[in-house]
Amino acid sequence: MATALLVAGAAWRPTPAPAADALEKNFWLSGPRYEGALPACEAALDTVAARFAQKESRFWNSDLRILGFDHVRQIAFSPWAEGTIPRRYCAAQALVSDGRRHAVYYAIGEDTGIIGATWGVEWCVVGFDRNWAFNPACTRARP
To answer: For residue 92, what are the contacts with CB-CB under 8 A and spacing of at least 6?
Structure first.
């Protein structure tokens, strides 16, 4: 019996999966449909401030907060190839509760929010990238 199964297994060859048919291609598999309709840079400032305070408190046992922003400006819009996720790259100066001003770089991306339902924000405050996610000096948060 074992020999018969071994011979049958050796004769069986896996076949490649067929490509999607017309119904499968048109049923929820249409691909991304980006509009490039993103809010202005100012729209994300509350999110950046709230997440900065949460990160400092939760992970670094710090009471630092962003008290305000100025010199808010766009530095790029979708600088990469066509068909990539539209992103608005912004920069600002933040007054942090340590009494100093720090540069802030952030990107607003289409469909990058919770479950892809809305826009999302990736951000970095120069001098506070303690886990080096955007190191050095937040350059990875810029285009």
So the answer is: 41, 45, 69, 70, 71, 72, 73, 103, 104, 106
Residue 63 corresponds to which tokens in the numbers above?
């009471």
Please report which confidence band the pLDDT of residue 31 belongs to, taking 50, 70 and 90 as the band edges. Answer: low
Q: What 3-state class would DSSP assign to 110?
A: coil
User: What are the start-end ranges of the H helices in the chain?
Assistant: 2-11, 22-26, 45-60
pLDDT, tens only, 2-25: 565 555 555 667 777 776 666 666
CB 106 within 8 A of CB 48: yes
SS3 118: coil
Nearest 10 degrees: Cα torsion 116, 117, 119, 122: -40
pTM: 0.76
Which pLDDT belongs to residue 25? 61
Contacts of 65 (CB under 8 A, 6+ apart): 49, 52, 53, 56, 96, 97
